[in-house]
Amino acid sequence: MLILTRKRDGVIQIGEDVVVRVMRTGRGSVKIGIEAPSHVKILRGELGPAHPEPVAAEGAGAVMFQH
Q: What pTM value is reported for the model?
């Protein structure tokens, strides 16, 4: 897991197509905006599976979690 600190209007680029922008910060909350192509599925954590199933990834001993 990568943990970053960003101020308001801060931007995080993920790959070439996804941008996460800090819109507002407040007491105990952060409002973010996500720009992504329409084919990229974006779900809030509570809407995804409760326990992602591990699947084997290519490479020696690598494990990924599939949602």
A: 0.63
List the structure tokens of 6.
Answer: 């960003």
Rounded Cα distance between 35 and 14, Å, is 10
Q: Which residues on neighbouring strands pair with residue 46, listed in sequence order? A: none
Q: Are 20 and 33 in contact (CB under 8 A)?
A: yes
Give the chain's largest Cα–Cα span.
Answer: 43
How many Cβ atoms sit within 10 Å of the Cβ of residue 58? 6
pLDDT at 67: 43
Q: How many CB atoms are located within 10 Å of the residue 55 CB?
A: 9
Domain ranges of the chain: 7-37
Q: Is the pLDDT confidence value at 25 over 80?
A: yes
